[in-house]
Design goal:
The protein is of the alpha+beta class. It has 2 domains: 195 residues, no CATH class; 90 residues. 48% of the residues lie in helices and 17% in strands. The chain contains 10 helices and 4 strands. Strands 1-2-3-4 form a 4-stranded mixed beta sheet. A hairpin with a 6-residue loop joins strand 3 and strand 4. Helix 4 packs antiparallel against helix 5. The longest helix has 21 residues. The N terminus is likely disordered.
C-alpha cells in the first residue's frame, strides 16, 4: 500500500511540475578568439538548465506539449564578468494531424550585454530585477509562451505578454540597452509594446487564423486551409496601411516567409495574383520569394 501511495505521489508530482519548454541553448564564443574557455561551456549548461527546469507558469504541460525552441547566444566580447553579444530566439509549434512543426517566433535580439560569474545562481523573480541575463532570457521565454498560446486561442497569450511587459518595465532600472524606446525600433521594448498596442491589433488575430484556421485545417482540407491563410494577408494589409513597415510585420515574415512560399507553391491551385500583390505591399523585403509563387 505504501508503495502504491508513493508511486501515485511521484506521478502527480512529475505531472504537476512539468516544465513548459524544450529549449536548445547554444553559446557561441568564436568571435572572442577564446571559445574553448570553460566559462562559456558552464554558461551554456547553466542557461539550458535554467530555461528548461524553471516552472514559468501555473499551467500543466504534458511532456509532448512542451514548446520546442532555441536560443543561440553569440558572444562578441567579454572582459572579466561582462559579456557582450546577441541572442537569436526561435520557437515552433506542431501542426494538427501532421508531423510538421511551424515556426512562430524568430527574433534576433542585438542588445545583449550581461554580467555573469561562473556558477552564479540564476533565479527568476517575476516582480524584481535580478540581472540583465535573467531578464532577457525570461522576457523571451514569455514571448515564446505568449505567441504559442495566440496560435491556439485568440488572445490566448495575454497573461504571458503582460509578464514580458512587466519584465520590460522593471528591467529599465539596470541601464542595459533594449528595454527603452530610445534603444531603437527593433528592441525588446518596441516588440512587446507593439504586441499589446491596438495599433497592431490585427497581428494577433492573424497569428490565430493563420495557424488554427489555416495550417491546422490543411491536413483534412488543404484548399480550405490555404484559403484561410490567404485571407490573413488582407488583415496584414489593413495593419500595414495604418502603420507601414512596422516591426511586427518584419517579425511575422522573418518566421513565415519560407513557409508561405511552400504553402502556395503546391497543392490545390489558387489564383495567386492578388496574394502576391498583397505580399509585395506588406513585405517587399521578400519580393524575390514572392516571385517564385506561380502555382
Amino acid at each position: 500500500m505504501r508503495k502504491l501511495i508513493f508511486v501515485v505521489f511521484l506521478i502527480c508530482t512529475t505531472v504537476g511540475f512539468s516544465q513548459e519548454l524544450n529549449c536548445n541553448v547554444v553559446v557561441n564564443a568564436q568571435q572572442t578568439g577564446n571559445e574553448n574557455v570553460q566559462v562559456f561551456k558552464t554558461l551554456e549548461r547553466q542557461l539550458t538548465e535554467f530555461i528548461n527546469n524553471t516552472q514559468w507558469t501555473n499551467k500543466i504541460y504534458k511532456p509532448q506539449e512542451r514548446i520546442d525552441c532555441s536560443m543561440v547566444i553569440i558572444i562578441n566580447d567579454y572582459s572579466n564578468d561582462i559579456f557582450q553579444g546577441t541572442i537569436q530566439v526561435q520557437s515552433s509549434r506542431p501542426v494538427f494531424n501532421s508531423t510538421y512543426s511551424t515556426p512562430v517566433y524568430n527574433f534576433n535580439d542585438k542588445h545583449f550585454t550581461f554580467k555573469y560569474l561562473e556558477f552564479q545562481n540564476l533565479v527568476h523573480n517575476p516582480n524584481q530585477f535580478e540581472s540583465n541575463l535573467v531578464s532577457v532570457l525570461a522576457y523571451h521565454v514569455f514571448m515564446i509562451l505568449g505567441i504559442d498560446a495566440d496560435t491556439f486561442e485568440l488572445h490566448g497569450g495575454d497573461p504571458f505578454f503582460k509578464e514580458a511587459q512587466t519584465i520590460t518595465n522593471y528591467s529599465q532600472q539596470g541601464n542595459f540597452k533594449g528595454w527603452k524606446l530610445e534603444d531603437g525600433q527593433q528592441s525588446r521594448f518596441v516588440l512587446i509594446d507593439n504586441m499589446l498596442s491596438p495599433t497592431f491589433k490585427e497581428f494577433r488575430t492573424v497569428m490565430y487564423d493563420y495557424h488554427r484556421n489555416g495550417l491546422d485545417v490543411m491536413a483534412d482540407n488543404e484548399k480550405e486551409g490555404k484559403k484561410a491563410i490567404a485571407k490573413v494577408f488582407d488583415d496584414l494589409k489593413v495593419m500595414n496601411n495604418r502603420r507601414p513597415n512596422s516591426f511586427l510585420m518584419r517579425v511575422f515574415f522573418d518566421a513565415k516567409a519560407d513557409e508561405i512560399l511552400d504553402v502556395f507553391s503546391g497543392g490545390p491551385k489558387m489564383n495567386v495574383t492578388d496574394i502576391k500583390d498583397v505580399l509585395n505591399r506588406v513585405a517587399p523585403t521578400y519580393a524575390s520569394k514572392w516571385r517564385e509563387i506561380n502555382f
